[in-house]
Amino acid sequence: MAKVFIYPATSLILSDLVARFGHEPLGSAVAIREHIQTPGFDSPPIQMTSDDPQKGLKWAAVEVPSGIRGRMSLYGPMVEEAEAAIIIDEPDLAFGCMGCARTNELLCFMLRERDIPRLELRYPTSKEEGVTFVAAIKEFLAELEVKKHE
Amino acid sequence: MSEQPVRIAQITCGAEYSGIQNEITTAAETVGGKMFYPDVALKDVKRAYKDFGLPVKSPDLKLAIARTQAIVEGRIEADGIFIASCFRCAEAAIVRNELRRYIVENSRIPVVSYSFNERTGSSTLLTRLEALTTIARRRSLMAREVQVGTTMGVDSGSSTTKCIIMQDDKIIGTGWRPTTEVLKSADEVVALALEESGLRISDIQATATTGYGRFLVGKHLKADLVQEELTVNSKGAVYLAGAQKGFATVIDIGGMDNKAISVNDGIPGSFTMGGICAGASGRFLEMTAKRLDVDITELGALSMKSDGGENVPMNSYCIVFGTQSLVNALAAGYSREDVAAAACHSVAQQVYEQQLQEVDIKEPVIMVGGSSLIQGLVRAMGRMLNTEVVVPHHSQYIGATGGALLSSGFIDKKKEA
Q: Domain of life here (chain A) (predicted)?
């Protein structure tokens, strides 16, 4: 089993696919669940406090807008923890959307910088492309398992 | 029975990730408002984004466009709109500005826009959200055009405290003092205004307080109306300028922050409050006066002896750098008159660049507050906006006048009680 960072990190379909093939998906659900379940926080809706953008300084400079740094405080540790990554380019909003384009650019760059297996795919626009899309993800995840055992 | 909360639609793209969502919610609740996220379907997002025509990359900004369109088209009801995005985000700033413009042009829903960082606290947002809830809740009070009976308004500002007593639509007493101890200064200006009017405190039928010290002074004076300065100042400004009907723009360069308010029929439509630094406020002009060894009341006359001071390098983006420019200009041999005018020009420029971009400038442009008595500042603003700026009589008492005017609405209520 490998820890696979998914982009868009909000994608339930992608998260489910990774889990179905026996790996651990790293995405928004994990990061936000941890925040919500941490005792002592009371800042709805996702229990982030003004400390989080400051933690985000590890991945983005102080000139970077606070919303980006706040997001990076969620995703940064997961990117560092990831053993593989799947990046879907130009996804449909319904597939999973990441709110801030600048965060997304930084996130994808950080994933490309890491020396880990990475699958980058364009979001499918037809049924045929959809089949190929799922097959490619399946193949990537299956190979990941083999690599882990080697 | 308590009033229903004012429903304020939150159009933001990162407030929760900036860790300030609780601050926004708290500020709204403090002033009887309730923030809500307008719900829109996925198909609405796609349609709205396409209709609006502004190509943006961030999905949250596409969502913001759809939410705004749903409110403007009446599919979602909101009493006010709060648009905010991260400070320093160019894409969001463009969207924020265009959405604000779209709301103002296509609806009568009051809107305030703001750029936040992780340090934004509820106290910073309080006055802005209070103005939003006031406009939504007290439209009938805001529509008052004539003062009746004998009423008093006290404006407890950051630099000065002012009092106005009005009787039958006329100002009959004024009081002005620098703000030292909030209550002491308030008592002094009330005493001055009473003395000038020849009245006693028991003759006053209704009282309003506004400004930073409004809550404390309001409790002390048992005020009928305790109101933030954005709505009160805009009401006072259009009243004194005789511009109660139609559009107007009110600019108030204060001691600590500035207000730019777009008014329609005496009711603010959109407004902005703040400033990047004290260098864009009256505080910089106070420092200038001190450095030039003139009283602040003489700074205006001194600056008018220069033709504008545009040739003097001065940038008061930050009050420390501004002071540095001031000292450098004097050391370079520029005259005191030119430096005084340059300081006025610099403040006007900062207000123009930082704030007036956030409201729609519509004539007449009315300048109010103590700084409107500095002629050089009014001239600089007029040149910047290419218009004749109106400075009504008693412009330094604008908040107190607006308070006295609006509080007369409480006289009948008291009689009924």
A: Archaea
